[in-house]
Structures are given as C-alpha cells and as structure tokens.
Amino acid sequence: MTNPTDRNAALAARDLKHIWHPCTQMHDHESIPLLPIVRGEGAWLVDAEGRRYLDGISSWWTNLFGHANPRIAAALAEQARTLEHVIFAGFTHPPAIELAEQLVRLAPPGLEKVFFADNGSAAIEVALKMSFHYWLNQGHGEKTRFIALTGSYHGETLGALSVSDVTLYRKTYAPLLLTPVLAPSPDAYEGEPGEAPAQVAARRLGELRALLERHAHETCAVIVEPLVQCAGGMRMYHPDYLAGLRQLCDAFGVHFIADEIAVGFGRTGTLFACEQAKVSPDFMCLSKGLTGGTLPLSAVLTTNAMYEAFYAEYSAGKAFLHSHSYTGNPLACRAALETLAIFRDEPVLERNRVLAAHLARRLEPLRAHPHVADVRQTGMIAAVELVADKATRRPFPAGERRGLRVYLHGLQHEALLRPLGNVVYFMPPYVVSEAEIDHLVEVATSGIERAVM
Asked: Which end of the chain is more exposed for a tag (fewer CB within 10 A), N or C?
C-alpha cells in the first residue's frame, strides 16, 4: 500500500517513465515537481495528496465555468449514452447541427458557415488553407503569403507556426515553415512616451497599409488575435486597430482572419473580441472555451461568399481539402451546446465585468512596484510585466527564469500561476469569487517580491 503522503511522487514517477509533456524541458522535472491532479472542484484543482491549487490560468485558458461543471458533465453523460461519434463526411447529427446554428446566431454578422475541427491549431490550418484555396479557385494562384503581427502566436502545427512570430520556434523549425510578412504589432506597451493606445493603433495601421501596398498582390490574408496577443506576453491593443484592419483588407482585396481561440467566449468582456470594434472578419477561429474546457473542439466560421467559391460540380476540382477523424464529434458538440446554454441562462458577462473590476482594483498597487513596468487588463485577462529596470523597461535576462520563481511560489501557496517569461498573468475561470481573486493577487504579489530579489 502506497503511503498517502507519497501519492504524488508515485504517480509522477510512473508518468515520467513514459510520458513526454508539452511545452516542457523534461530535464526540469529532476528539480521541479510534476503535480498529479486527480479531480477538480470549481476554480480549484486537487492533487493526489489532497492539496488544492486555485487555477489562475483556466488550465491553458480553456476552462470557463469550473472544473467538473455539473451541467456540462450531465450533458456529456447523456450524449455518451446516445451517440459518441460518427463519421462527419456524408453524415451529420443533431448536436453539430444545433451548435452550428447557435454559433452563427451569436457570431458577428455575415459569418454563416461553420467548419469543425478538433483543436485551435487545426482551426488555424483550416482558415489558412481555405483562404489560399479561395484565391486559387478565383484564379489568383499568385496569392500564397500571409501577413501576421510581430509577437504573434497562432499554434504549433506547421501552418500555424508559419504565421507565428516566436523566435525560438522559428529558429528551430525555419526550414519547414512558410515565411510571413510581419506587420508591427499595435501593442500599447510598445507605444512611444505619451502615446495613447488608440494613437499606437493608428500609427501601426499606417505601417500595415504600407505593407499591403507592397504585398497585397501576393497576400491571401492578414491574421491577428483580436485585442490580446496572448502567448506573445498578453500584449493588448486598442479596438480601433481591428476596425482599421477590416477597412484595409477590403481596400486591398485580402482576407481578415480573426484568431479568437483564446480571446473568445467572454474573455475580453464581450462574447467575441471583434464585437468591440464592430467588425466581422472573413474567418473567425474558435476553440478553448468553446466546450467550457472539457473536450477538444474547434470551429472556423466564414462567409457564404467563401463557401460559394468551393461549391461546384465534382469534376471542377474545387472542393476544400481538409478532414479530421473526430470532426464534429457529438460529445464535444454537446459540451459546447451546454457551455452556450450557460451563457444564455446566466448573467455571465455581467458577472465577469464585476470580477474584472475587482481584479483591476487589486492589481492597481503593483503599478508602483520598482520592478513592474506595466499592469494591463482587457476584461478577464490581466498581466503584470516584470522588468529589471523600471525607468528604461530593461527586461530581466530570459535565462534567469524569474517567472518560474513566481510559478513555484504559487504552487507552495495554493495557486496555479504560470507566467509567460517575465509576464505574470491572470485568466481565471468565470466561477472564481472575489475572495479567490484576492488570493491569486496576494500570492502573485508575494511571488513577485521573491522573484525580483
């Protein structure tokens, strides 16, 4: 019989014998604990020895309504007794039909068609391929490139990495990747002294226009994460950039791809981030919160005009070429339907505004910290930028792994905080209480003190 106090170590040892974890230098686990989680309770995770951790990052930004949510669990159980999966080529099923109908009803105007996939990176692949293939079907095979923002991240399959600007990934996998045209990010943190976020957006739109003047003839689409560049360090920008981007895409004849995988479903204060600019993209990619954080599922919403460019006799050879075995999985679709039902039945966005305001108040004192260059927030996403020198915004050397110190401190004090480099961020489930937000901020603040020593 395993000693109860050794349960975490026993499970970790079994894991490390065979499992290779994502986004991890496995050697780190010689000194950094691997934590076996055996159950979830609302905003909390519980390990094998009963210790609890407040999930301040929604388990990679997926969880909306708490772990083991009873409504979603009940819907999944009912669906599992009815239909677990069916091929989605030549067949369909009620959960997928109803989910597509509801997504179209909720999405920005003009997005009338839904293509399902099974994760965020796959959704990006679909949008990139569909944009290119649209232009090919229209007789514009010369359009083969994409414009992305500096600091962008859209996933880790090869197409998604090709439109991401993450130095480590591009350096490693460069021979396998397409080369995007990079437009300067409208990131407000990078603004000039005294420059307001809207002014940064306007200046960056001018630079994007100049790029389109040179490259529109070979460009399929511009791809952006609306309002928040999440994995790039929670970089935030003004909605005016999205409005201007829509105008520029129309003027220069390129598509607008909105990657709402992380920012959709209420994270930024509205159901979809694009709503804050009152724009409709040509493609909107969704995943993560789509199922409330229970099962992998993604969707690409697009226009009737896009669909019609592929609609032809079989002999024309215009059909879109993309498939996944678990496309439109009934279990995942049913989880998504229950997630949308919670938005319908409960005042989720209204409650989020109250929680976001409380989070902002609690983070405000950190603005005066000598090693904090910026505290920024968009809805239920907040970030604290740690620097070596506040006056010059000189960053800590990446090799010092200051953010890792915050992470380890959090685990010792019942909080899951997983900084992005030296950016400590908060993206909790929507079921978090104000008292739990207080706990996250207090642990983060004490962790920051230890990290900058």
From this structure: N
Is 399 annotated in a binding site? The answer is no
Distance (Å, whole) CA 201 – CA 186: 5
pTM over 0.90: yes
Binding residue per annotation — 288? yes
Reported as a single tens digit per residue, the pLDDT across 129-172 is 999 999 999 999 999 999 999 999 999 999 999 999 999 898 99
Low-confidence ranges of the chain (pLDDT < 70): 1-5
Task: Give which of 368, 453, 383, 371 is closest to 418, Cα–Cα.
Answer: 383
Residue 121 counted as an annotated binding residue: yes
Establish whether 113 is an annotated binding residue.
no
Phi, psi of 172 (to 5 degrees): -75, -45
User: Is there a contact between 301 and 107 (Cβ–Cβ < 8 Å)?
Assistant: yes
Which among 356, 186, 342 is positioned nearest to 265, based on CA atoms? 342
Show the DSSP H helices in 227-315 as ranges. 240-252, 304-308
**b/e for 219-249, b at 16 or more Cβ within 10 A?**
bbbbbbbbbbbbbbbbbbbbbbbbbbbbebb
61 annotated to bind ligand: no
CATH 3.90.1150.10 fits 35-68+347-451, yes or no: yes
- CA 266 remoteness from chain centre: 12
Q: Are 150 and 183 in contact (CB under 8 A)?
A: yes
Geometric angle at alpha carbon 63, from 417 and 26, rounded to 5°: 50
Residue 269 assigned as binding residue: no
Sole residue written with tokens 């349960």:
7
pLDDT in tens, 375-387: 999 999 999 999 9
Q: Is 153 annotated as a binding residue?
A: yes
Per-domain residue ranges for the chain? 35-68+347-451, 74-345
120 is in an annotated binding site: yes
CB neighbour burial string for 400-421, b if at least 16 within 10 angstroms, e if fewer: ebbbbbbbbbbbebebbbbbbb
CA 340 to chain centre: 18
Q: Are 381 and 234 in contact (CB under 8 A)?
A: yes
- The answer to the question of whether 324 is labelled as a binding residue is yes
Q: What fold, for 74-345?
A: Aspartate Aminotransferase; domain 2 (3.40.640)
User: Is residue 68 within 8 Å of 41, Cβ to Cβ?
Assistant: yes
